[in-house]
Amino acid sequence: MVKKLIPLSEVYRLLEPGPVVLVTTCFKNETNVMAMSWHMMIDFVPPLVGCVMSDQNYSYRLLESSGECVLNIPTVELIHTVVGVGNCSGETCNKFEKFHLTQEPASQVKAPLLKECYVNLECKVIDTSLVKKYGLFILEVVKGWVRTTRKRPLTIHHCGKGNFVVDGKMMKLPSEKL
Amino acid sequence: MVKKLIPLSEVYRLLEPGPVVLVTTCFKNETNVMAMSWHMMIDFVPPLVGCVMSDQNYSYRLLESSGECVLNIPTVELIHTVVGVGNCSGETCNKFEKFHLTQEPASQVKAPLLKECYVNLECKVIDTSLVKKYGLFILEVVKGWVRTTRKRPLTIHHCGKGNFVVDGKMMKLPSEKL
Description:
The structure is a homodimer.
Chain A: E1 3-5, H1 12-15, E2 21-27, E3 30-36, E4 39-43, E5 48-52, H2 58-66, E6 68-73, H3 79-86, H4 95-98, E7 103-104, E8 113-114, E9 119-130, H5 131-134, E10 136-147, E11 156-158, E12 163-172
Antiparallel strand pairs in A: 1-10, 2-3, 2-6, 4-5, 5-10, 6-9, 7-8, 9-10, 11-12
Protein backbone atom coordinates (compact mmCIF):
# COMPACT_ATOMS: atom_id res chain seq x y z
CA MET A 1 0.00 0.00 0.00
CA VAL A 2 1.39 3.33 -1.09
CA LYS A 3 1.71 6.21 1.36
CA LYS A 4 2.06 9.91 0.70
CA LEU A 5 3.35 12.79 2.74
CA ILE A 6 0.66 14.53 4.72
CA PRO A 7 0.92 18.32 5.10
CA LEU A 8 1.93 19.08 8.69
CA SER A 9 -1.01 21.49 8.97
CA GLU A 10 -3.40 18.53 8.54
CA VAL A 11 -1.93 16.32 11.27
CA TYR A 12 -4.36 17.52 13.96
CA ARG A 13 -7.28 16.10 11.95
CA LEU A 14 -5.90 12.59 12.48
CA LEU A 15 -5.03 12.80 16.18
CA GLU A 16 -7.72 14.99 17.72
CA PRO A 17 -10.52 12.42 17.26
CA GLY A 18 -8.67 10.31 19.86
CA PRO A 19 -7.65 7.10 18.06
CA VAL A 20 -5.51 4.47 19.77
CA VAL A 21 -1.97 4.77 18.43
CA LEU A 22 0.93 2.34 18.31
CA VAL A 23 4.10 4.12 19.45
CA THR A 24 7.40 2.85 18.10
CA THR A 25 10.68 3.78 19.75
CA CYS A 26 14.34 2.97 19.14
CA PHE A 27 17.46 3.57 21.20
CA LYS A 28 20.76 2.05 20.09
CA ASN A 29 19.92 -1.57 19.25
CA GLU A 30 16.62 -1.69 21.17
CA THR A 31 13.33 -1.16 19.37
CA ASN A 32 9.83 -1.45 20.80
CA VAL A 33 6.15 -0.80 20.16
CA MET A 34 3.36 0.00 22.62
CA ALA A 35 -0.34 0.92 22.46
CA MET A 36 -1.34 4.37 23.73
CA SER A 37 -4.54 6.38 24.08
CA TRP A 38 -3.32 9.17 26.31
CA HIS A 39 -2.38 11.81 23.76
CA MET A 40 -3.70 15.18 22.60
CA MET A 41 -2.94 17.94 20.13
CA ILE A 42 -1.20 21.00 21.59
CA ASP A 43 -0.62 23.16 18.52
CA PHE A 44 -1.41 23.16 14.79
CA VAL A 45 1.82 24.21 13.01
CA PRO A 46 4.26 22.88 13.75
CA PRO A 47 2.03 20.10 15.04
CA LEU A 48 2.75 19.59 18.74
CA VAL A 49 1.37 16.57 20.57
CA GLY A 50 1.28 15.79 24.28
CA CYS A 51 1.42 12.17 25.38
CA VAL A 52 1.65 10.33 28.66
CA MET A 53 3.66 7.20 29.25
CA SER A 54 4.19 5.36 32.53
CA ASP A 55 7.76 4.97 33.69
CA GLN A 56 6.86 1.31 34.14
CA ASN A 57 6.71 0.95 30.34
CA TYR A 58 9.78 -0.31 28.52
CA SER A 59 9.04 2.29 25.82
CA TYR A 60 9.35 5.07 28.39
CA ARG A 61 13.08 4.45 28.72
CA LEU A 62 13.55 4.25 24.96
CA LEU A 63 11.59 7.47 24.39
CA GLU A 64 13.40 9.30 27.17
CA SER A 65 16.83 8.12 25.96
CA SER A 66 16.34 8.64 22.23
CA GLY A 67 14.06 11.70 22.26
CA GLU A 68 12.22 10.28 19.26
CA CYS A 69 9.24 8.11 18.36
CA VAL A 70 6.71 7.38 15.66
CA LEU A 71 2.96 7.56 16.29
CA ASN A 72 1.36 4.93 14.05
CA ILE A 73 -2.44 4.94 13.70
CA PRO A 74 -3.95 1.47 13.24
CA THR A 75 -7.33 0.75 11.69
CA VAL A 76 -10.00 -1.55 13.12
CA GLU A 77 -8.59 -4.51 11.18
CA LEU A 78 -5.62 -4.42 13.57
CA ILE A 79 -7.67 -4.44 16.78
CA HIS A 80 -6.39 -7.85 17.91
CA THR A 81 -2.83 -6.73 17.26
CA VAL A 82 -3.42 -3.55 19.28
CA VAL A 83 -4.73 -5.53 22.26
CA GLY A 84 -1.87 -8.01 21.96
CA VAL A 85 0.71 -5.23 21.85
CA GLY A 86 -0.96 -3.58 24.84
CA ASN A 87 -0.87 -6.73 26.95
CA CYS A 88 2.77 -7.72 26.86
CA SER A 89 6.12 -6.03 27.40
CA GLY A 90 8.95 -5.61 24.92
CA GLU A 91 11.32 -6.46 27.73
CA THR A 92 10.31 -10.13 27.55
CA CYS A 93 9.42 -10.57 23.86
CA ASN A 94 9.95 -9.08 20.42
CA LYS A 95 6.52 -7.61 19.75
CA PHE A 96 7.22 -6.92 16.07
CA GLU A 97 7.82 -10.62 15.43
CA LYS A 98 5.08 -11.82 17.77
CA PHE A 99 2.42 -9.66 16.09
CA HIS A 100 3.80 -9.66 12.54
CA LEU A 101 4.37 -5.91 12.44
CA THR A 102 6.60 -4.77 9.60
CA GLN A 103 9.19 -2.09 10.32
CA GLU A 104 10.00 0.44 7.62
CA PRO A 105 12.66 3.13 7.95
CA ALA A 106 11.53 6.61 8.89
CA SER A 107 13.16 9.65 7.33
CA GLN A 108 13.76 11.91 10.35
CA VAL A 109 13.96 9.53 13.32
CA LYS A 110 15.45 6.13 14.10
CA ALA A 111 12.17 4.61 15.36
CA PRO A 112 10.50 2.56 12.62
CA LEU A 113 7.28 3.23 10.72
CA LEU A 114 4.75 0.40 11.00
CA LYS A 115 3.81 -0.63 7.48
CA GLU A 116 0.43 -2.06 8.55
CA CYS A 117 -0.78 1.26 10.03
CA TYR A 118 -2.52 3.76 7.76
CA VAL A 119 -0.77 6.80 9.30
CA ASN A 120 2.81 7.24 10.54
CA LEU A 121 3.89 10.42 12.31
CA GLU A 122 7.61 10.89 12.92
CA CYS A 123 8.10 12.81 16.17
CA LYS A 124 10.86 14.43 18.20
CA VAL A 125 10.56 15.17 21.91
CA ILE A 126 10.79 18.95 22.35
CA ASP A 127 9.87 19.41 26.02
CA THR A 128 10.54 17.09 28.94
CA SER A 129 9.71 19.48 31.79
CA LEU A 130 6.72 17.41 32.98
CA VAL A 131 8.14 13.94 32.24
CA LYS A 132 9.34 13.23 35.77
CA LYS A 133 6.14 14.43 37.41
CA TYR A 134 3.47 13.02 35.07
CA GLY A 135 5.26 11.05 32.34
CA LEU A 136 4.08 13.82 30.01
CA PHE A 137 6.20 14.23 26.87
CA ILE A 138 5.68 17.04 24.36
CA LEU A 139 6.39 15.92 20.80
CA GLU A 140 6.77 17.79 17.53
CA VAL A 141 5.58 15.93 14.45
CA VAL A 142 8.37 16.49 11.93
CA LYS A 143 7.07 14.30 9.12
CA GLY A 144 3.77 12.52 8.47
CA TRP A 145 2.72 9.75 6.11
CA VAL A 146 -0.77 8.60 5.23
CA ARG A 147 -2.00 5.71 3.10
CA THR A 148 -3.45 6.81 -0.21
CA THR A 149 -7.00 5.55 0.03
CA ARG A 150 -10.13 7.24 -1.16
CA LYS A 151 -12.15 6.96 2.03
CA ARG A 152 -11.17 7.54 5.64
CA PRO A 153 -10.37 4.20 7.32
CA LEU A 154 -12.03 3.25 10.61
CA THR A 155 -9.92 3.88 13.70
CA ILE A 156 -10.54 2.57 17.21
CA HIS A 157 -10.91 4.35 20.53
CA HIS A 158 -10.14 2.66 23.83
CA CYS A 159 -12.76 2.84 26.58
CA GLY A 160 -10.83 0.88 29.19
CA LYS A 161 -10.79 -2.79 30.18
CA GLY A 162 -10.56 -4.10 26.62
CA ASN A 163 -13.58 -2.15 25.39
CA PHE A 164 -13.22 -0.23 22.16
CA VAL A 165 -15.54 1.96 20.16
CA VAL A 166 -15.02 1.85 16.41
CA ASP A 167 -15.53 4.92 14.19
CA GLY A 168 -19.11 5.16 12.99
CA LYS A 169 -20.64 7.53 10.48
CA MET A 170 -19.00 10.78 9.44
CA MET A 171 -20.95 14.02 9.73
CA LYS A 172 -19.96 17.25 8.01
CA LEU A 173 -21.34 20.45 9.49
CA PRO A 174 -20.84 24.05 8.46
CA SER A 175 -17.97 25.49 10.48
CA GLU A 176 -16.23 28.83 10.27
CA LYS A 177 -13.20 27.52 12.08
CA LEU A 178 -10.52 24.92 11.41
CA MET B 1 -32.88 12.68 33.31
CA VAL B 2 -31.33 11.37 36.47
CA LYS B 3 -27.57 11.33 36.97
CA LYS B 4 -25.47 9.36 39.42
CA LEU B 5 -21.98 9.80 40.79
CA ILE B 6 -19.33 8.04 38.77
CA PRO B 7 -16.42 6.47 40.69
CA LEU B 8 -13.34 8.61 40.05
CA SER B 9 -11.44 5.46 39.02
CA GLU B 10 -13.80 5.09 36.04
CA VAL B 11 -13.41 8.62 34.66
CA TYR B 12 -10.62 7.66 32.24
CA ARG B 13 -13.03 5.35 30.39
CA LEU B 14 -15.10 8.38 29.37
CA LEU B 15 -12.32 10.73 28.28
CA GLU B 16 -9.66 8.50 26.71
CA PRO B 17 -11.78 7.64 23.65
CA GLY B 18 -11.39 11.30 22.67
CA PRO B 19 -14.91 12.78 22.65
CA VAL B 20 -15.54 16.45 22.03
CA VAL B 21 -16.31 18.10 25.38
CA LEU B 22 -18.11 21.31 26.30
CA VAL B 23 -16.07 23.18 28.90
CA THR B 24 -17.94 25.45 31.28
CA THR B 25 -16.12 28.08 33.31
CA CYS B 26 -17.14 30.74 35.83
CA PHE B 27 -15.25 33.64 37.37
CA LYS B 28 -17.10 36.16 39.51
CA ASN B 29 -20.22 37.01 37.50
CA GLU B 30 -18.94 35.73 34.13
CA THR B 31 -19.84 32.27 32.92
CA ASN B 32 -19.00 30.70 29.57
CA VAL B 33 -19.01 27.47 27.56
CA MET B 34 -16.67 26.36 24.76
CA ALA B 35 -16.13 23.23 22.66
CA MET B 36 -12.79 21.41 23.06
CA SER B 37 -11.13 18.33 21.60
CA TRP B 38 -7.58 18.86 22.80
CA HIS B 39 -7.57 16.89 26.03
CA MET B 40 -6.06 13.67 27.34
CA MET B 41 -5.92 11.54 30.47
CA ILE B 42 -2.74 11.91 32.54
CA ASP B 43 -3.44 9.65 35.54
CA PHE B 44 -6.11 7.25 36.77
CA VAL B 45 -6.65 8.07 40.46
CA PRO B 46 -7.07 10.83 41.20
CA PRO B 47 -8.07 11.36 37.58
CA LEU B 48 -5.78 13.96 36.05
CA VAL B 49 -6.57 15.46 32.67
CA GLY B 50 -4.45 17.65 30.42
CA CYS B 51 -6.19 20.16 28.16
CA VAL B 52 -5.12 22.92 25.82
CA MET B 53 -6.89 26.22 25.39
CA SER B 54 -5.82 29.17 23.27
CA ASP B 55 -5.27 32.44 25.08
CA GLN B 56 -7.52 33.91 22.38
CA ASN B 57 -10.49 32.08 23.93
CA TYR B 58 -12.68 33.96 26.37
CA SER B 59 -12.79 30.76 28.45
CA TYR B 60 -9.00 30.83 28.83
CA ARG B 61 -9.22 33.90 31.04
CA LEU B 62 -12.07 32.45 33.10
CA LEU B 63 -10.22 29.15 33.57
CA GLU B 64 -6.97 30.87 34.46
CA SER B 65 -8.66 33.27 36.89
CA SER B 66 -10.96 30.78 38.61
CA GLY B 67 -8.79 27.63 38.50
CA GLU B 68 -11.94 25.58 37.91
CA CYS B 69 -14.09 24.19 35.12
CA VAL B 70 -16.53 21.43 34.24
CA LEU B 71 -15.93 19.04 31.33
CA ASN B 72 -19.36 18.15 29.95
CA ILE B 73 -19.57 15.31 27.40
CA PRO B 74 -22.32 15.80 24.80
CA THR B 75 -23.91 13.03 22.76
CA VAL B 76 -24.48 13.07 19.02
CA GLU B 77 -27.95 14.59 19.46
CA LEU B 78 -26.18 17.81 20.50
CA ILE B 79 -23.89 18.00 17.45
CA HIS B 80 -25.45 21.20 16.11
CA THR B 81 -25.17 22.78 19.55
CA VAL B 82 -21.50 21.77 19.73
CA VAL B 83 -20.73 23.35 16.36
CA GLY B 84 -22.69 26.46 17.30
CA VAL B 85 -20.85 26.80 20.61
CA GLY B 86 -17.54 26.29 18.80
CA ASN B 87 -18.24 29.01 16.26
CA CYS B 88 -18.99 32.02 18.43
CA SER B 89 -17.47 33.75 21.42
CA GLY B 90 -18.94 34.27 24.85
CA GLU B 91 -17.54 37.77 24.77
CA THR B 92 -20.21 38.84 22.30
CA CYS B 93 -23.17 36.62 23.22
CA ASN B 94 -24.60 34.49 26.00
CA LYS B 95 -24.04 31.01 24.60
CA PHE B 96 -26.19 29.30 27.23
CA GLU B 97 -29.24 31.29 26.10
CA LYS B 98 -28.39 31.17 22.41
CA PHE B 99 -28.06 27.35 22.39
CA HIS B 100 -30.62 26.52 25.09
CA LEU B 101 -28.08 24.97 27.45
CA THR B 102 -29.34 24.51 30.99
CA GLN B 103 -26.97 25.30 33.85
CA GLU B 104 -27.14 23.22 37.02
CA PRO B 105 -25.04 23.86 40.11
CA ALA B 106 -21.94 21.76 40.60
CA SER B 107 -20.93 20.56 44.05
CA GLN B 108 -17.20 21.34 44.14
CA VAL B 109 -16.74 24.19 41.65
CA LYS B 110 -18.55 27.37 40.63
CA ALA B 111 -18.70 26.49 36.93
CA PRO B 112 -22.09 24.99 36.00
CA LEU B 113 -22.96 21.46 34.96
CA LEU B 114 -24.72 21.29 31.59
CA LYS B 115 -27.96 19.39 32.09
CA GLU B 116 -28.16 18.30 28.43
CA CYS B 117 -24.78 16.49 28.53
CA TYR B 118 -24.65 12.86 29.62
CA VAL B 119 -21.45 13.31 31.66
CA ASN B 120 -20.27 16.20 33.85
CA LEU B 121 -16.79 16.21 35.37
CA GLU B 122 -16.04 18.87 37.97
CA CYS B 123 -12.38 19.87 37.73
CA LYS B 124 -9.80 21.98 39.54
CA VAL B 125 -6.63 23.24 37.90
CA ILE B 126 -3.68 21.71 39.74
CA ASP B 127 -0.71 22.66 37.54
CA THR B 128 -0.24 25.80 35.45
CA SER B 129 3.47 25.42 34.68
CA LEU B 130 2.89 24.99 30.91
CA VAL B 131 -0.06 27.38 30.56
CA LYS B 132 1.95 30.35 29.36
CA LYS B 133 4.00 28.32 26.87
CA TYR B 134 1.35 26.02 25.37
CA GLY B 135 -2.00 26.90 26.97
CA LEU B 136 -1.73 23.50 28.67
CA PHE B 137 -3.71 23.19 31.91
CA ILE B 138 -3.55 20.13 34.15
CA LEU B 139 -6.88 19.40 35.82
CA GLU B 140 -7.92 17.08 38.60
CA VAL B 141 -11.41 15.66 38.32
CA VAL B 142 -12.85 16.05 41.81
CA LYS B 143 -16.39 14.86 41.14
CA GLY B 144 -18.07 13.14 38.21
CA TRP B 145 -21.70 12.64 37.19
CA VAL B 146 -23.12 10.34 34.54
CA ARG B 147 -26.65 9.89 33.22
CA THR B 148 -28.24 6.65 34.36
CA THR B 149 -28.92 4.94 31.06
CA ARG B 150 -28.56 1.30 30.23
CA LYS B 151 -26.46 1.64 27.11
CA ARG B 152 -23.50 3.84 26.34
CA PRO B 153 -24.62 6.94 24.43
CA LEU B 154 -22.92 7.94 21.17
CA THR B 155 -20.28 10.64 21.51
CA ILE B 156 -18.69 12.64 18.72
CA HIS B 157 -15.06 13.14 17.73
CA HIS B 158 -13.88 16.19 15.84
CA CYS B 159 -11.75 15.65 12.73
CA GLY B 160 -11.28 19.32 11.87
CA LYS B 161 -13.10 21.72 9.57
CA GLY B 162 -16.59 20.77 10.81
CA ASN B 163 -16.09 17.04 10.19
CA PHE B 164 -17.07 14.68 12.98
CA VAL B 165 -16.96 10.93 13.39
CA VAL B 166 -19.74 9.47 15.53
CA ASP B 167 -19.18 6.45 17.78
CA GLY B 168 -19.85 3.21 15.91
CA LYS B 169 -20.00 -0.32 17.21
CA MET B 170 -18.49 -1.38 20.53
CA MET B 171 -16.00 -4.23 20.62
CA LYS B 172 -14.98 -6.05 23.79
CA LEU B 173 -11.68 -7.93 23.70
CA PRO B 174 -9.91 -9.93 26.37
CA SER B 175 -7.48 -7.67 28.17
CA GLU B 176 -5.31 -8.23 31.22
CA LYS B 177 -4.95 -4.53 31.81
CA LEU B 178 -7.25 -1.68 32.77
